Amino acid sequence: MIIIGFILLFLAIRNGFEPLLLVPIGFGGILANIPGAGLAYSAVENAIYSGDAALLREFASVLPVALSAEPDSVKGLIGAYKSAALPLQIAAETLAEQAGFRDGMLYTFYKVAIASGIAPLVIFMGVGAMTDFGPLLANPKTLFLGAAAQFGIFATVLGAVLLSSIGLMDFSLSDAAAIGIIGGADGPTAIYVASLLAPELLGAIAVAAYSYMALVPLIQPPIMRALTTDAERKIVMVQLRRVSQRERIVFPLILLILVALLLPAAAPLLGMFCFGNLLKECGVTERLSFTAQNALINITTIFLGLSVGSQLVADTFLDVETLGILALGIVAFAIGTASGVLIAKMMNRLGSTPINPLIGSAGVSAVPMAARVSNRVGLEADPHNFLLMHAMGPNVAGVIGSAVAAGVMISLVGG
Amino acid sequence: MIIIGFILLFLAIRNGFEPLLLVPIGFGGILANIPGAGLAYSAVENAIYSGDAALLREFASVLPVALSAEPDSVKGLIGAYKSAALPLQIAAETLAEQAGFRDGMLYTFYKVAIASGIAPLVIFMGVGAMTDFGPLLANPKTLFLGAAAQFGIFATVLGAVLLSSIGLMDFSLSDAAAIGIIGGADGPTAIYVASLLAPELLGAIAVAAYSYMALVPLIQPPIMRALTTDAERKIVMVQLRRVSQRERIVFPLILLILVALLLPAAAPLLGMFCFGNLLKECGVTERLSFTAQNALINITTIFLGLSVGSQLVADTFLDVETLGILALGIVAFAIGTASGVLIAKMMNRLGSTPINPLIGSAGVSAVPMAARVSNRVGLEADPHNFLLMHAMGPNVAGVIGSAVAAGVMISLVGG
Amino acid sequence: MIIIGFILLFLAIRNGFEPLLLVPIGFGGILANIPGAGLAYSAVENAIYSGDAALLREFASVLPVALSAEPDSVKGLIGAYKSAALPLQIAAETLAEQAGFRDGMLYTFYKVAIASGIAPLVIFMGVGAMTDFGPLLANPKTLFLGAAAQFGIFATVLGAVLLSSIGLMDFSLSDAAAIGIIGGADGPTAIYVASLLAPELLGAIAVAAYSYMALVPLIQPPIMRALTTDAERKIVMVQLRRVSQRERIVFPLILLILVALLLPAAAPLLGMFCFGNLLKECGVTERLSFTAQNALINITTIFLGLSVGSQLVADTFLDVETLGILALGIVAFAIGTASGVLIAKMMNRLGSTPINPLIGSAGVSAVPMAARVSNRVGLEADPHNFLLMHAMGPNVAGVIGSAVAAGVMISLVGG
Amino acid sequence: MLYGMGTVVLFLAALVIATMAMSAVIGNYFAQPQRVEPVASGGQASTGSARHIDPTTLSVITAAIHQHRKRGR
Amino acid sequence: MLYGMGTVVLFLAALVIATMAMSAVIGNYFAQPQRVEPVASGGQASTGSARHIDPTTLSVITAAIHQHRKRGR
Amino acid sequence: MLYGMGTVVLFLAALVIATMAMSAVIGNYFAQPQRVEPVASGGQASTGSARHIDPTTLSVITAAIHQHRKRGR
Ligand code: NA
Ligand code: NA
Ligand code: NA
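# sodium ion complex -> structure
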C-alpha cells in the first residue's frame, strides 16, 4: 500500500494529476500504512492490535464476542468492537484509554472531516464561491448537457449491479450507487456519497474519481472525435449575451428552491454550493467569499486529503473489488462523455441556435479541465473557434447534475 | 419560515443590513426549513421524525416516555430524548446510528460553534483585534457614555419581566435577560448570552440584534434631534491628544485586571476581546492579529451565521413571543440612545471641556455605524464639525459596556 | 499565577521572547487563574467547585469516592472524577449539565487542541512548509551536528532520573523524558511529547522550552567562545552547491521512508513535518503550502498558546518541581550547545572539508535564532565570514534530531 | 436506473424553465444599468476584473506574499 | 435592575480612573519618543497607515487578489 | 540513555547516507536544467524570489492589507 501512496504522489507531482487532492491523499496513504504507528486506527483498535494477552482478555470480557469462533483473537475483537452498541463501545474506549492508547492522528482527522460529512460540504461551498454561472445563465439550455452526462452514473450503477448478480463482484446496491458517482467527475460529491453509502470503499472511490478527473484530457478526445463529424466540430456558436448581477444573485436561490421542493436529499450538497455562490455574487460579503475560496477550502482540502488517504488500507484496497471500481469508473466516464456529445448533437439538430457538439462532453463536470478539452478539440478543427466560454455552461451544469444524481442515489438507497 | 429567510437575504443584499451575518443567517434559515432534509436535527431527531413505527417503538422502550400521554407519539419521543439523562441519550443515539441516521449538517455546525460557546468568543477576539482604543484613551470620560447607553438593556429586562407578570408574554427571568442584551447593539455578545441563558430564543434574539444594528441610521437620528438643541449639536470638541503605543498595550491589560477583580462572569467575552486587542497593539504578534481579523473571524462568521439560521424554526420563531422580542428590542435601542445623549448633555454642563451630546448615542456600540450616525447628524448642524473620531470613544466604550452588562446578567441569572 | 502570566507577557512584548507563543500562553495563564471564572475547568469541575452541598452529595453518590477519607470534600470529588471509568464520568457530566454548568472556554480549547494531540502536529506541518532543506542537502554531514546537539536531551533525562533517585525531586521516568525534550529547543515537539508522557507538567515544560529558545542569544555565545579557539572561529567554509528541485522533493520522502522503517513512534511528528515540506517543495500545491504557513499555523498557534496557558495553574506550577524543570532545561540547552560545537570540532579535524565549529551550536534547532547566533559569533571573529547559510543546515537538522529523539522517548517510555 | 436518470433530467428541465423565466422577469421588469462586464468567449471562469493586470504587478504581489511568509514561525 | 445598572456604571467608573492613572503614569515615567501617528478627527477607526494609498494601487491589489482566486480548486 | 542517543545517531547516520545516495542518483541520472536559484551564503532561510522587492512596493502591499482590514467586522 505504501507503494501505491508513492505512485499517487508521483502522478500528482510529476504529471500534475489533481495535485491539490492527490498529494495529501497519497501522503496520507503512506502514513496510514506505516507498520506499528497505528495512525489510522482508533484508540481501541490500537489497543487491540498492540496490547498484550491480558488486555485482550479484558476486551473480550467487555465486547460481545461470544458468537465468534476464536473469541480472543484480534480480528474477532476488532469486528466485535465495530459492531457493538454505543455503551459497549464506550466501555471499550475506557479500557483503551486506561491502558494508555490514543486515537491515531489520521483517525481523528477522518472522524472530524469525513465521518461527520462536513469536509466535502465545506469544499463544495468553496467550489460554489469559485463558480461563475454567467455562461450557464446566458445559455440555460446547456443544463441539458449537464444532465445527459450523468447517464454514465446510472449506467455504471446498473453495471455494478449486473456484475454482482452474475457473481463476478460482490457489490451491494449502496456500493453500486457510490461507485457510479465516480462517473460524475466531481471529487467532493463522490467523497460525500461514498461516506454515506459505502464508507469501506471510500478510499478506492476517491482515488478513482480524482485520477479519472486528471485523465480527462486522455479519455475524452477520442470519444469526442469518434462521435462527431468534422463539420460539426467546426460549428461556430453565437456570442453569449451579457448576464446581469441580479440574475447571478437570483440563480443560486432558484436552484435552492427547486432542491427544497423536489429533492431534499440533495440539500446538503447543493445548499452549500448555492450558499458559496451567493456569497460570491451578492457583492456584500466579499470577505466571506474570499475566505471560503482560500483559507477555508485549503485547510479543509489538507485534512480531507489526509483523511481519504487514511482509508487506503491494504485489506480493503488491494482487492479484486478495487479493480472492479477502477474499471466501472472509466466506463462511467466514457458513457457520460458520449451521452453529452450525442445529446448536444441532437439539440443542434432540433434547436434553432447552433450548438457545437464538442461542448457536450464538458457536461461530465471536471471543472475546468473538461471545458478546456472541448476548447482544444475545437481548435484542432478550426483554429479560430474558441469554445471555452460556451463549454463552461455545460461544465458547471455538470456539477449541478452530479449533485442532483447524488441526491437521487441517497434518497433511493440510503435512509 | 423559508420566506423569512428570503426576507433576511433581501434586506442584507439589497439594503445592506449587516450582510456578513444576515446572509449566512438567512441562508441557514432556509436550509433548516427544507422539509424532509432534516439539516437542523440531530441523528435521533431525524430517526424519530422519519423512522417507521417499529423504530419508534424501539425508541419508546429506551427513552423515559412512560409519563407522556401518547408514549409512542413523535412529539413525546423528541421531548423525552431532550430531557433524558446522558446515558439514555447515548442509548437513543446508538439506535439512531444503527438505523442509518446522521446528525444534520446545520445541527453539527450549531453544536460545534454555538452550543460550545466558542464561535461568539472567537468573533469577539477578532473584533478586539480590529478595535482602536486610541480615541477612548485620549478621552477616557467617554466610557461613561458607553455605560449610560446600557440603560436600555436593563430597562428592557424590566419591561420583559413586567409583560410576563401582567400575563401578556411568558418570559422567564433568564429569557428577559437575554432579550435585554439586544439593546447592547452587539451581535456576538447577544448570541453568547442567548446561548447561555435562553437557547430556545437564540434565533429571534440574533435576528433582532443584527436587524436593529442595521437600522441604527433610521432609529437614532430622530431621538438625537429631539433631545438636543441646535446649539448643542454645533458644539466643537477639543482635538484628541496623541496616544502612545504603551498606553494602547497596557489598556487591555488594565481592563482584564478589572474584570478579574470585579466581574469574573464577563471573563470569557472581555478576556477574548482584550486578547485580540493585545495581539493587535503589542506590535510583535502581527501574524496572529492579521489572522484573527481575517481568516479566523471570517471562517467563524460563516459557521456562526449558518448555525444561528438553523434556529429559525417555525414552531419557536413564528410566535407572539418573537413579536414581543422585536418590540422590546427596539425599545431597548431607543432607551439606550436617549440615555447616551442625555448623559452626554449632563457631562457637557458639569465638566470643563465641551462635549457634543450627539456622540452620546454612539455609546450603544453598533461599531462603527452609530459613530457615523453621530458624525452625520453633527454635519447637518455644522458642515465643518467632524465628530467621527470623538464618537469612536463612546462607540468602543459601548462594546465594553455591553460585555460588562452581559457579565452582570450571567452572574445574576445564570449558574 | 496571574503575575507569572504578566511576566511572560512582559518578556514577550518588551524583550521579544518568542512572542507568537508567549503572548497567547501568558494571556491564557492569566485567564485560567481568574478566580470564580473557571475557564480552565470542565463542566464537572466547575460544578464541584461552585456547587452547593446538595449537588456535591449527588456527585458523591455517582462517583467512586468511598475510598477517600472525606467522601464529600471537593478535592476528593475532583480526584474521583478524574480517575473514574468513562461511564461514571458520563454520569457525572449529566449531573453537571443538568445543574447548568458548562466546560470552560480554555478547557474546550485544551481538549480540542492538545489532548487530541492535533495542534502541535499541525504547527509542525506549517514549520515543515516553512523549512528550506537546501543548506542541509548541500552538506548532509551537518545532520551529525543536529544529532550531537540532542545529547542534551538524554543527559537531562539521566539528570532528572538521578535527582529523583536521590530524593531531591519526584519525577517518574516519563516525566523525565518529557523534561529532557526541553533541550531539543523545539516548542511543538516539547508540547507534543509532554501531552503524551507528562500532561500535568505541560505548562511548565512549554514555558521553559519557549523561554530558553528566546534566551539562545544569551545562553549559547559564552559556551561557544569557551570551547573554540580564535582560529577555529575564523574558519571559512566552502560555498554551498546548488540543490536541484528534485532533491528537495525527494528528501522529505526519504526521511519519511526511514521513519517508517526505523522509528514508527516518530511518524506523527516527522510525518507531518515531511508533509508540510513536500507541499512547499513539490511546486504543484502552492495554495495548500501557503495556507499551511499562514492561516492554518496562525489559527493553531492562537489556540495552542491559550491552551498551554490554561495549564499554568498554581497548584501544579508553583512547585519545587517547576524549579527543577527550569534548572534541568537550561542544563539540557547548555549540554546540547557544547556537544554540537565539540562534534563540529571533531568533524573539522577528521574530515577533508573545513567546518567552522560555531555552526555546531545551531544543531540544538531553535530555528532560526541559533543559526543567527552562529553567524553573529562568527562575524565577531572575522567580519567577512558569513556563516548563516552554513548554520542553517545543522539548524534544521536539529529539528529532525529532536523529533527523532522524541520518537525514541515515546517508544521507550510511553505505550 | 431509469427512474434516477429521469429525476435528474426532470430536475434540470425544471431548472432550465425556472432560469429562463427568472432571466425574462429580471430583464423586463428589474433591469439594471449594465455595470457587469461582458462574458466574452475566450475568457476565464472567474470574475473578469483581474484580466488586465500586467505581469510585473503580479510578480510584485507574488513576491510580497513570499516576503510575508518569511516572518517567523 | 438598579443593581445591574449600578454594577455597569461602577465598573466603567473604575475603568475610567484606572485608565487615567495608567496614562498619567506612562506619560510621566515611561514616555516614549512619539512614533505613533496622531488620532486626528475625520479619520477612520483603523490603523492610519493605510490612509494615503491611491486608488490605482488599491485596484491593482484587488485585481491581484481576484487573479489569485483563479488558481484551481 | 545510551540506547536512546545511539538510536538518534544511527537514524541520522542512515539519513546522511540515504541523502547522499539520493543526491548522487539524481545528479547523475535525473539531472534537471538548473532553474533553481543558488543557495548563497548570507541569504535567508526562505525561497529567494522575495529578495529584491524595493521597500516602496512592500509598503504599498502592507498598506493594502491594512486597507483590507478596515472592511466591516
Ligand atoms: Na458531474
Ligand atoms: Na453596546
Ligand atoms: Na532540536
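# post-check
The pocket of sodium ion (ligand 1) is lined by residues A 184-186, 364-365, 398-399, 401-402 (CB under 6 Å).
Chain C has 23 helices and no strands.
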